[in-house]
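Q: What structure does this chain adopt?
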Amino acid sequence: MFLDQSTRRNLEISQTIFTNQKKGSLLWVMDKTATSMGKRLLKEWLENPLLNLEKIQERQEAVQDLYEKPLVQNEFKDFLGQIHDLERIVGRIAYGNAGPRDIVALKESIGYLPQFRDLLRRLESSIFHNMVVHFDDLQDLYTSIDEKIADEPPISPKEGGLVKEGFSKEIDELRDISRGGKNSLLAIEAREREATGIKSLKVGYNKVFGYYIEVSNSNKALVPSHYIRKQTLANGERYFTEEIKLHEDKVLGATERLYQKEYEIFCRVRDNIAVNAARIQMMAAYIAVADVLFSFAKTALENRYVCPVLHDGDTLEIAGGRHPMVEQMGEEAFIANDTFLDAENHRIAVITGPNMAGKSTYMRQVALIILMAQIGSFVPAQSAKIGLTDRIFTRIGASDDLVGGNSTFMVEMTETADILRAASAKSFIILDEIGRGTSTFDGLSIAWAVIAHLAAGELGPKTLFATHYHELTCLEEEMEHIRNYAISVREYNGDLIFLRKIAPGKANKSYGIQVAKLAGLPIGIINQARTILKSLEKNQLHLDKNKNKAAEMPALFKEISENQEEILEEIENLNIDELAPIKALSLLAEWQDRIIKENNEH
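A:
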């Protein structure tokens, strides 16, 4: 299944939208892998769900196999924890830049392959059975490395110490000479101290000047005539003798030959591994697949997931579905919801309800459950029957493309257009607040037309369409394939309580002011908004019929005329306690006549 960048971002598959971090993403929830190879493969599977029903069911069978054998799971975890990153090691070997410790890490990992095979034999699913049939324990490579390469080699392959004692007689002899050179130096140093009487005399070595005899300035007078000056220091002099020179030639020559011989053997071992890279890669792939399937089983056990039933039909039926990330991150108990969509009368669900009530969470969780099912994972639900889906599309959130020169609304329309062009009858679409980036009537018209397009014809994609345009709920009665749903809320003492439950029907209002209050908007603004809302709801917008244009602002925003000022002044100066009822009615009639006359004149 191809997932475009917008869908990957909106579903937060490998990183969250706002923090761009792994924590909070689907990858974070699903990742119980124990190897680097498994982590990479899990991310690849999440971003590339399967379309082949048989392969999906093979993965499900393997997960079920592990799910039912928790003891095998524990042993798998122990095995996987011992395995190095074989894919990276083989890559470095193939490019010729692997070090001695890479080779030893490879040997150590190969050493655990017999344990891996024993674990696979205790499982019954076809994926694990095929691994056993084609299993390669790589013991020839293990033996080759083990008999030649030291268990704790240096980092660099040119520093010596690579080859095991006893493997090569020539290398052992050169190593003895090299080691014996140090003992000889100590003997020379003791003899020269005795002969010269210089107790602080020191015989040493560095890579630039080779071997030397070092004497402090205070003892220079005791230096024999056969000492040849080699280097002057601030506090002394360095010399050499014919004996030192012969020793240097012998030891350095042996050391150089030793390093060269060891490096040649290391290169032969490395080249032999490179020739067999495909065998190692196959076993690395087996380990990675087993690691991901182990991760699926462990996640399912820990989070109460169930095995979904996938089929070739067009029905999507989820009972008690949950959002895999929100239920892990949220402090409150997650409220599960059901979903039913098909190609007939329930193709499109128009979802209304206030912001913050959970519309986007609900729609995303349905998409994530489909995605998880088609990578072979269990899903967060009580049960799920899912028709194979070829594409998941999402149009969620508001963002602009400043670099590309596109406004928020242009981005919204471009993404919507791409979805409508590419979607098929097997696709699943999430559309959240289409048309909100422009004027009310334009936005409503576009949203209406998009739903009508998706509902037209016998075959169309299954769609969840969240909106604040309550006018769209009338489409349930006018068009086939459309059903209304609403997120349940309750008002208590002026506050909003989110029930997080989706049910058939439609919301009466959007509760935008209550949500603004929850967000912390100043109370003065909240109160004024309520006043404006009441004014609008009482139809106090005036249409200019002659110009056939939208209404002016509500009366409370209009400039007060002189006539209205006079009326207000008269009201202010009234003594209501002394006003007879008949007089009050007379004044009201007079003021009404004056206002109507003024409106007619304008």
